[in-house]
Amino acid sequence: MDRIRLEFPVSRLVHRHPMTIRVSDINYGQHLGHDSVVSLAHEARGQAWQALGFPEWNIDGLMSIVADLAVQYQGEGRLGDALVVETAIDSVSGKGLGVHHRLLRVSDDAVLATLRVGLVFAGEQGLAEPSARVSTAIEQAVTAMSSQVTN
């Protein structure tokens, strides 16, 4: 079986969000469950958008909608593990963009999972392209934040 392989674009890193694995994040195998990986990434994505100055539910009057999701599991998280969820954001391309997440265990910097979320933008009339103004503003914010976060 071919496995998915995701690359995390470190040069586009905009945010690091600390979290701890809670009892509600643990599955019957006694490790971090799939649903919680997705939820932790969603929380980190929301925090990253906020840090960039764009609430994810109102980007230039548009909301962002998850169109696709890919997850590559690379390790196991356990109850109480301190994590950092890193977020990197691609450039706007048409009606959407890609957001990447990497879940790292703080104690040993082990990568537990890498995710790529495809977002599309929509308004009341359906899918829409953000204005050139906001696309430029997103790119400028990503560039500014990535230089701060990686230093």
Uncertain runs: none
| Rg for CA atoms | 16 Å
> What is the CA–CA distance across the termini?
39 Å
The proportion of residues forming helix, as a percent range, comes to 25-40%
Q: Which sheet architecture does the biggest sheet show?
A: 6 strands, antiparallel
Q: Please state the overall shape, judged from the principal axes of the Cα atoms.
A: globular
Helical stretch tally: 2
Key terms:
151 residues; 6 strands; 2 helices; alpha+beta
Describe this structure in words.
It is a single chain. This protein is α+β, with helices and mostly antiparallel strands and 151 residues long. It has 2 helices and 6 strands; from the N terminus they run E-H-E-E-E-E-E-H. It is globular. The N and C termini lie far apart (39 Å).
Briefly characterize the structure.
The protein is an alpha+beta fold and 151 residues long. The chain has helices spanning 34-52, 132-150; strands spanning 13-20, 63-73, 82-89, 96-105, 111-123, 126-127.
